[in-house]
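The records we work with from here on pair a chain with its fold. A complete example follows; check for yourself that the lines match position by position.
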Amino acid sequence: MKNELHTLKAIPYQDITDLQDLLDHFDSWQEPLAVLDHFFQFRTGPINKKKVIKEYYACGHLFHAFFTEFIRLVEAEQLKIKKLDRERKVTTHFVKK
């Protein structure tokens, strides 16, 4: 029999719930992004220029809000990933026959 030492990363429960919160946060953006998608779809027929200008202005603000939040969340998650990579490890012993 041979005793082998294996090292596994320990993932705290809080990190798992943080990831779920992040996914919920991204999920909350689905509806506003659908509005942007609808706005930028190709349109046929006559175009009301005043309406398009108003919608463009509103969509620009919506996109800016999303983009700013997305960048903030990605940077925060990158820091968490680096922290998890440095975190403690759990050592287990396996016996091989």
